[in-house]
Request: fold
Amino acid sequence: MKFRTLSAAAVLLFGLGGSAFAQAQEKVTFMAFDVVNFRGALEEFITEFEAENPDVDIVANFTPQLFNQFLPLLQAGNLDDITFISSAAFVPFLASGRLTPVPDDFTAKLKEDLYPASLGPVSRDGKVYAVPYNYYPSSGVIMYNEQLWTDAGIDPSQAKTWEEFMQLAQGVTKHDASGKMTQAGFSAQQEQHTIFLAWLLQMGGTAFDENGKVAFNDDAGKAALQQYADIFQKWKVDDYEFSDTITGFNQGQIAATMVGPWYDSILAKDHPDIHVGHVAQPPLPGVSADQPDYWAIKEVWAHLVSADGAKKDGTWRFLEFLLRPEIAARWSAFSGEMPTVSKALALPEVTDTVYIAPYVDALKYAVTDNLTEYLSSDVLKEMDKMLESVGRGQATVDDALTNAEVEINRLTARMER
Amino acid sequence: MAQSKLNRAQSRFVWMSLTPILIYLVTFVFYPFATSVYYSLWDFFWDEFVGLANYKEAIFEDSAVPEALKNTLIYAAIRIPATIIPGFFIALALNRILVGRGFMIFGFFAPYITSMVAYSAIFLYMFSNLGLFNVVLQALGLPAQPFIRSVDEALPSLALMDAFKNVGFDVLIFMAALQNIPRSLYDATSIDGASPWQTTWFVTIPLVAPTILFLVVIISIWTIQVFEPIYVLTQGGPLGSTRTVVYKIWEAAFSAGRVGYAAALSVLLFLIVGVISIVQLRIGRTKWEY
Reply:
């Protein structure tokens, strides 16, 4: 009898204790993109964080449909506590004022710890709306297939100007008997709008005025767009009808490109047989060799905190954990993304990773400009259309710029109502 | 009195039979449609009632909409005859084959029951520079083609791929129609000395005309709503040359986050499909009645 009473009491106590523990353990939901280089690193970090913080349970939801799910979830008010997503995805909602700014004390920490240009894409009117975690540096550094250049007996680092680089790239470009391209010397298609924006800055231009109207239909814009068209029309080292950048580079049909370290990391894992070299982008015509190779921060990947998530202590503790320099550096090495945490840039995980290190030097030239408030996906599509139409020779530079100006101004006007 | 009780019982039976269908229609047809119409009058970005502004933008301002409509109609114009004509002749041939017919029907029907996403993914490789089509072309001494990377070739490539996938459906429907044609009509044409071509043209085709009309209507409705191959293979490119109306709706809703605008486009698409279907049915009724 006594034993049974004691057992019942023990069960009751255990039950109560268990439920009390369960109540004390704060659940923080976390949604992120389901790609191998993201998921692997983030799952590892979550395990480490929970070991350090047993009172917080991070419930991760990895989805390959992140971008398609994000906007409907946001509109329905059903976002997870934290969503790790590209800043481009929530640009329209920054403008709408529906997002809650990051608390002041956390903003102060971000301003202290992060590289300054990373805050631009998630800020508006002096307020920070998300926690930037990595850059998206798609220009500034040319990556090339060492084998293809060696086979052609050409060293891409010999080019001192962009025109010289294009001439060298012509030597690596191949055609069949009918004149069809079989190997591209340089492909710009994958990140065409990022490259255009970077070149616009390098030419002394800017993308938008303070009212969100297109400001690149000017001499700088024409010069940048002409350089882009020349890749296809003058130098003929790339062809839209030949191959897309990623497939072509993977298949050894594209000799050089500017994509970014994320692609380097995937190549290192999936195509270890392709040896990739890196050279800085030489200066464009009319740009002094002394002028920095500005590259445009059109977006960062950032942790977006929902209104419910902002009320949870566990949310901010988890984000603080992720922003530790050693965690950010490991994130960088694993994912191939450039960390936003300044101190992480000096750690061996970053400096010793062959596909991250070349971009660290370029980082000092990163410019947010006033791009990101207006670069929604439909605006980027119009920009891509402009670039592709001149690349394919279906529009003149002047016509393409004018058409893009009309369409983009129509789209940005909605956000400025 | 007995009559009245019977009517009540009949009435109850009718209502009981109709109730599940009504629930289905209300839940999955009328309610979503009414919601779409309601959403189409809003801009959710600003949580603002905008009346017909989304329709005005779609019809008069957004240049991508008429382009998408044109692409959709071109796609349908290629896709519909590209399944119906081969489907008819394949069915005609299979109708005369006695050995291995089931196997051959399965061969034509297998792509139809394959997932469009999986099927498109396979064609992604077949259309590439090193893909099957270019390997064959080059083996024949012909120049390689860009297919889905060309502004001119992308839409026809997708429409023909779609047609090849679905030809088995047409074959099956035509075979059912051909088996309903009385044998005596063929015997009579044979006695009259008609050639096989004359028999096909003057007997078979008129008798399967209602089937052709059915296929034209149903395939028109399907092709006007084409989405998966565009999503998997071209994302509307190159240069918007494969952006169809449904892909444009998807872009508006999920890429640009403009649910109200996407709803307005959906309502317009519904009207277009409705008008095309009515026109097709009227044409069929007046000309092809036999």
